[in-house]
């Protein structure tokens, strides 16, 4: 039998948290709907491609600021903000990473292709010009690299979660080196971004209540997340990684090392927790299945 995770738990103050969650989610949805006419009138009709991409990043920035304000999450920023057209290489803990980062810098995100098919969210994502990918090899990778480079060339920052999934915030996984190719091709800086989440309430756990990394269903998790109080996200922009004359692997390794060093996770495993754990032997001596994989990220 494979390893199992405990069922999702209700954080302290369930009743108050439910009311707070409803109010915050309603505020975030209302803000999103208010921006739809601006998106349709200001971004979608723009025929100049570079201008359209810049407007898409700016409206994403406005949306993110409103959503972060509605969520009650406090954001603390360290380090100089990256310049326009930088590739942001960030670690990934939860879907909340996306509005937090975009609230600081006008940014587009490399997202999973299937999200583009989600009702409403997918429509907005396509209209706001976020690049997408479904695989890290073959034609899809080439297409994704081209999409990201186009945005970097337009002086639009693009964030890529190079781990390719989320974690409990206790490790920084191995970075997918091919996805730094757009920065090399565009001559753009690669800026490592270290994300760390905190709770003022010791009974609220980053691992169990904030991180979206196991087999939680999205809807129950986001309801719990928006009901939490005293949550803070620390965002550290590290010094850009030198790219000239270097390989993708060298750049990705240095970006990961900068983030891991900032978070004090230099010796963290390179594999997700479920892969790093030993498998259990079954009665017939065969190898049992590992624990359920972390929930797939909202970005790559």
Walk me through this protein's architecture.
The strands form two sheets. This protein has a six-stranded mixed β-sheet, sandwiched between helices. The chain has a two-stranded parallel sheet with strand order 4-5. The chain is globular, with a radius of gyration of 19 Å. It has one domain: Glycerol-3-phosphate (1)-acyltransferase. α1 runs antiparallel to α2 and α2 crosses α3. The chain is an alpha/beta fold and 300 residues long.
Overall 3D shape: globular
Radius of gyration computed on alpha carbons:
19 Å
Helix percent band: 40-55%
CATH third-level topology: Glycerol-3-phosphate (1)-acyltransferase
* Biggest sheet details: 6 strands, mixed
Low-confidence stretches: 1-5, 277-296
Number of strands: 8
Mean of pLDDT: 87
Tally the structural domains. Answer: 1
The secondary structure category is alpha/beta
Distance between the termini: 30 Å
* CATH architecture descriptor name: 3-Layer(aba) Sandwich
Q: Can you count the helices?
A: 10
CATH class: Alpha Beta
The amount of beta strand, in percent, is 5-15%
* Element string (H = helix, E = strand): HHEEHEEHEHEHEHHEHH
- Order of strands across the widest beta sheet? 1-8-7-2-6-3
């Amino acid at each position: 039998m494979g390893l199992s995770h405990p069922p999702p738990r209700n954080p302290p103050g369930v009743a108050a948290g439910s009311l707070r969650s409803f109010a915050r989610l309603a505020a975030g949805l209302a803000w999103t709907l208010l921006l739809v006419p601006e998106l349709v009138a200001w971004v979608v009709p723009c025929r100049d491609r570079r201008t359209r991409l810049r407007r898409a990043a700016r409206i994403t920035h406005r949306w993110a600021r409103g959503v972060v304000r509605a969520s009650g999450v406090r954001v603390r920023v360290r380090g100089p903000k990256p310049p326009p057209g930088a590739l942001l290489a960030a670690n990934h803990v939860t879907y909340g990473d996306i509005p937090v980062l975009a609230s600081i810098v006008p940014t587009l995100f490399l997202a999973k292709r299937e999200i583009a098919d989600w009702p409403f969210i997918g429509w907005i994502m396509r209209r706001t010009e976020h690049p997408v990918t479904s695989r890290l090899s073959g034609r899809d990778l080439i297409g994704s690299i081209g999409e990201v480079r186009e945005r970097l060339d337009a002086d639009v920052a693009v964030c890529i979660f190079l781990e390719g999934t989320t974690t409990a915030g206790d490790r920084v996984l191995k970075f997918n080196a091919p996805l730094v190719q757009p920065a090399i091709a565009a001559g753009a800086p690669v800026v490592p971004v270290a994300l760390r989440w905190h709770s003022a309430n010791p009974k609220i756990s980053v691992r169990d209540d904030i991180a979206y990394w196991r087999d939680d269903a999205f809807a129950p998790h986001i309801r719990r997340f928006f009901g939490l109080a005293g949550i803070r996200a620390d965002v550290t922009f590290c010094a850009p990684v030198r790219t000239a004359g270097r390989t993708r692997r060298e750049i990705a390794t240095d970006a990961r090392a900068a983030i891991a060093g900032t978070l004090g996770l230099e010796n963290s495993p390179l594999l997700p927790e479920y892969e790093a754990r030993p498998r259990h032997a079954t009665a017939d001596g065969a190898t049992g299945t590992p624990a359920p994989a972390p929930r797939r990220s909202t970005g790559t």
